[in-house]
Design brief:
By secondary structure, this protein is an alpha+beta fold. Helix content is about 35%, strand content about 35%. It has six helices and 22 strands. Strand 17 and strand 18 form a beta hairpin. The longest helix is centred in the first third of the chain and has 46 residues.
């Protein structure tokens, strides 16, 4: 064999050796895998036949469901109902505040300048109409008395002048009949009577004015030099603007008296809902100071212009306050109810529970099984609450006793933790 033939046979030998090595390694691998596959197939049916552990069974129960035993159902005394649509009147809830009824509020002022000598009422006092409130020492009283006396003296003088003029006229008429004087002199005597009569009437008018002004100053019996200011209406003193010794000017305010048996509830209604408001419309008030107590009122005024800052219309409602427990400037939630009613899904308010920060309702889904369903609430009316989302008509829910189911849900949540 030549050297070239020997050299070409060496690569062929290497090739066959490598191929033989691959076949041997592959066979060994298949031989090792065959028993394990056979073993796993034999074990698999046995493993599938084993019963589930309690944890595995609980894991398959939905987290939003709970099942009560017969004994627990008996203790809970649950009541059920079917979700249905109800007619809900259109309502608008806005915030507002209480204010004094200005139609029943009066301001007590003075019509003279002077110095306050006595103050007989203070803030919070209940006063009656005609009750003395403030004494004022004023020089106008002295001037009024002087003017009255002067007017009386003037009337007396003018009465004498008229009497003299009438006497002169009678004398002139006698002389004229005797042709002792001329017609001109007799006419002059008539003119004097007419003039004296006019001057007397003027003096009497001045006396009437001076007397009425002196009487209007209402001098009290226990103080000769003071003017008394009386309450012009019954009510409660809301504001007192003077103290002893205060010097007041003419037309100054002294006190404010209000009748708190009725108050105003002032609401700011958004522009879009302004057309919804009508005079005489029913209103319900809820005040934070009195919890869930609801008070009835009615709309007595709707503003004619929008506030340029807030784009709202001011609505004034009249609310009765016979017990006096309501006070001006209290905050209030004001619910205005419209006339048109709309069908909505509504359920009893008691059926809604709060679980972990969300409002939920419990659906009856089987014998002793209940499902927790989150809902979104809307308006409330006469113990019913509108459900905006979360429920459909015809579903069966727990209407009473939901707190018991809520407790079971909370227990199961703690057990999982």
């Amino acid at each position: 064999m030549s050297s070239n033939e020997k050299h070409s046979s060496k690569p062929n030998t290497r090739r066959w050796a490598l191929l033989l090595l691959v076949v041997v390694v592959g066979g060994l691998a298949l031989w090792r895998l065959w028993p394990s596959a056979t073993h796993s197939e034999a074990v698999a049916p046995a493993a599938a036949a084993q019963p589930e552990t309690p944890k595995e069974a609980d894991a398959k129960t939905p987290a939003n469901r709970v099942t009560l035993s017969a004994e627990a159902l008996k203790r809970a005394q649950l009541e059920y109902g079917t979700v249905a649509t109800q007619s809900f009147a259109q309502t608008l809830d806005v915030t507002g505040r209480l204010s004094m009824n200005e139609d029943a509020t009066v301001r007590v002022g003075t019509f003279v300048a002077g110095r306050v000598t006595r103050v007989l009422a203070t803030v919070g006092d209940t006063v009656k109409k005609g009750q003395a409130l403030v004494y004022i020492h004023s020089h106008e009283l002295l001037d009024a008395r002087a003017n009255d006396a002067k007017a009386r003296a003037m009337v007396t003088e003018k009465e004498k002048q008229l009497a003299y003029a009438k006497a002169e006229l009678e004398r002139a008429e006698r002389l004229l009949e005797a042709k002792a004087i001329s017609k001109r002199e007799q006419a002059h005597a008539v003119a004097n009577v007419v003039a004296a009569t006019g001057e007397l009437e003027q003096a009497r008018a001045e006396l009437t004015r001076a007397s009425e002004w002196l009487e209007h100053l209402t001098v009290p019996h226990d103080s000769h030099d003071d003017i008394v200011i009386y309450a012009s209406a019954s009510g409660v003193v809301l504001q007192r603007l003077v103290t002893l010794g205060t010097v007041v000017a003419e037309n100054a305010d002294l006190m404010t008296i209000g009748n708190v048996s009725t108050l105003w509830a002032i609401a700011e209604v958004p522009e879009a809902q302004a057309a919804f408001i009508r005079l005489g419309q029913a209103v319900e008030l809820t005040l934070p100071a009195f919890g869930e107590d609801r008070l009835s009122a009615k709309v007595v005024h709707v503003g004619t212009a929008l506030s340029p800052e807030t784009r709202t219309v001011q609505v004034r409602c009249l609310v009765n306050n016979p017990s006096g427990k309501l006070r001006p400037e209290m905050y209030a939630k004001i619910s205005l109810t419209g006339s048109a009613a709309q069908p909505v899904i509504a359920i009893p308010r008691e059926a809604v529970q709060e679980v972990q920060g969300e409002q939920v309702v419990f659906l009856s889904v089987g014998e002793g099984a209940f499902e927790k369903r989150a809902v979104q609430m809307g308006r409330e009316q006469k113990g019913q609450v509108e459900i905006v989302s979360g429920l459909s008509a015809g579903e069966r829910i727990v209407t009473r006793g939901g707190f018991f189911i809520k407790s079971e849900f909370l227990k199961s949540s703690l057990a999982e933790e």
